[in-house]
Amino acid sequence: MCGFIAYFPLGKNKFNKKKFIDSSKYISHRGPDNNKSFFHRDINLIFYRLRIRDLTIYGDQPMFSYSKKNIIVFNGEIYNSDKLKKRLDIKNLKSNSDTEILINLYEKYGPSIINELEGMFSFVIYNFSQKKIIAARDRFGIKPIYYYKNNEYILFASEIKPIIKYTKKKNFNDLAFANFFLKQQLDNDDLTFFENIKAIPPANLLNLSIDQPMKIKKYWDITLDHSKLANSQVTFQNLFDRSVNKHLISDCEVGLLFSGGTDSTALALNMAKNKKNSLKTFTYDFSNNFIAGESQQAKIISNKLNIKNFLSIVNPNYIKTEFDKMCLELESPFTSIRLFGVKKVYENIRINKIKVAVEGGGGDEILGGYQYNYLNYLLDKIKKNKKNINEFLLDLLKDNTEQSIVNKLITLSYQEGSTKDCTPFINLNCFNKDFIRTYLKEEFYRSDIINQNINFLQKSQLKDILKVNLPRSLKYMDRLAMVSGVENRVPFLDHKLAQYSFHLSNNQKIKNGESRHILKNIYRKKKYTNFFTKQKKTIVDPQRDWLRFELREFFEDEINSKHFKQNNYFDSKNILKSYDKFLKNTSTTSFNLFQIFTASKFMKNFKDF
To answer: Cα dihedral sign for 282, 285, 287, 292?
Structure first.
């Protein structure tokens, strides 16, 4: 796991070597074990390495192919590299690194080799004879890659800060903020919060040469299922076991982020039987919140499994101290106080000298684990047989509150405007009218998920996989792991497992009101039954309480500041009114207020960056 920056000239602009080197230092945290550079009239590369596989200097980058015709900088892991290695001339290999296998596979087979890679990756390859660059990103965008292009050069980097420092351009992107405030999206497709700085979208390959226009092409689509695998629990378990085994490949110790929820518990059970040494798990919680938070369940399960659990505690002062750092590390606004728990737990992982951590991201998305997924599951049942409408109505009415019924119906019509538990969060009065008027148009809200060959549940899942929860959480986890020099891995996003899960029948995902049924059923042995709840348990945090009490002054200082009142996105008077209602406990969510707060903090930090 690493970080890189690459400069490819397109014109006669003079390359600024000193500025390039200085800019690269803003990703040095991604590779604290080694850094190397390569400077040439055709390509300039700097690489920071976190040594995970092949801890010797022979795995360092930038790395040349056998023939020296190609050079690569690569961030990620190719888990099937040993299998792919058999297609190369083994005598020529100098290392045991997946990087060397990848660059030489590319030299032998060209860009088509990307379809055979299993893992997480972002990379840039330059061919000296063709004067051509290819750059690619893994299927779900687990590993980041950004670029800035003008008529004189193109600049790639693993994070945005080095690009800003080199180009001296940091204008904010209005559309990105509209997507964030109204759709919960960030870094969606190629969009970032900075104008003219783009991301290569997940599952895309970029081609560029001096005499040809840049082309970006998608190479994989989760909705296209070409497998002949049986729709069964046995097949799912085999794919899951295989994925976990692959994600344990490392020359360093591997730990686990452990919440005690379904996904991390399934990983713990699987990893405990695979690891030769005792598994170490890491959990976070909030001060004065032990009963409601994750730590109690994690402790109970850890004791029953006889695995060691390390607990990190977040208090309000830690949030105040780390808030500005968080904005710079994430390079975007964010949506939850829980990220400070994630940040602290990765700090604890590194303190314990662990460089690789597995986590359960993606499990809910590929198996339909959220409340609004269940509503869409019921719609599919109605479509199949109109008699099932009674079950749908019973679900709407079961909470016995008018507001709950309204919330669910609103969520069905506009999923992106509600939190995972079907609570609508958008308050248009909090925003500048001109800003909102620009985006209150049909084309902004029209869904681009129009595949008619998938059902309601899959469409609901796809919004999270491509647009909302998954891209957001993957970005958070990458940044917060890498800032502590830790590689994070996500076994549920093995593309074969994820694609298979997405195409499972609805009753394998949800059955008798139970979400992620197929996964829970695998581990529902007598002694593990109590580990898996029927319904998804919402992670509890003190965000609402702390914004009313412990963090109230911190929050109020921001929304009463001069730069906040001058912000072109906000209606500061209505935000103060909204916050007053929130303080009186008449608001059901803090999500929108926290969005606005972090967006303001983010903009201030990057204006000063």
So the answer is: negative
3-state secondary structure 173-186: CHHHHHHHHHHCCC
At 244, which helix (H) or strand (E)?
A: helix 233-247
Instruction: State whether the Cα torsion 162-164-166-167 is positive or negative.
Output: positive
Which tokens go with 84?
A: 């792919």
Which residue do the tokens 């009963």 mark?
291
- Identify which of 157, 243, 143 has the alpha carbon closest to the alpha carbon of residue 203: 143
Backbone angles phi, psi at 48, to 5 degrees: -115, 125
Rounded to a whole number of angstroms, the CA Rg of the chain reads 24
Sheet with 254-257, edge to edge strand ranges: 308-314, 280-286, 254-257, 356-358, 487-489
pLDDT along the chain (609 residues), means of 10: 93 90 97 95 96 90 95 97 89 86 95 96 97 97 97 96 96 96 91 97 95 93 85 92 95 93 92 78 87 78 89 96 98 96 97 96 96 93 86 76 86 92 94 94 76 89 95 97 97 97 95 90 73 62 92 96 96 95 84 97 95
The DSSP bridge partners found for residue 388 are none
> Three-class SS of residue 514?
strand
DSSP calls for 45-82: EEEEE---SS-SGGG-SSEE-TTSSEEEEEEEEETTHH
Hunting for tokens 């409408």 — which residue is that? 389
What one-character DSSP code corresponds to residue 190?
T
> DSSP assignment, residue 150?
-
Which residue(s) pair with 308 in the sheet?
280
Q: Residue 518's closest CA among 537, 532, 538?
A: 532
Residue type at position 410: I
Retrieve residue 283's tokens.
């959990």
Q: What is the largest CA-CA distance in the chain?
A: 72
**How far apart (Å, rounded) are the C-alpha atoms in residues 332 and 474?**
13
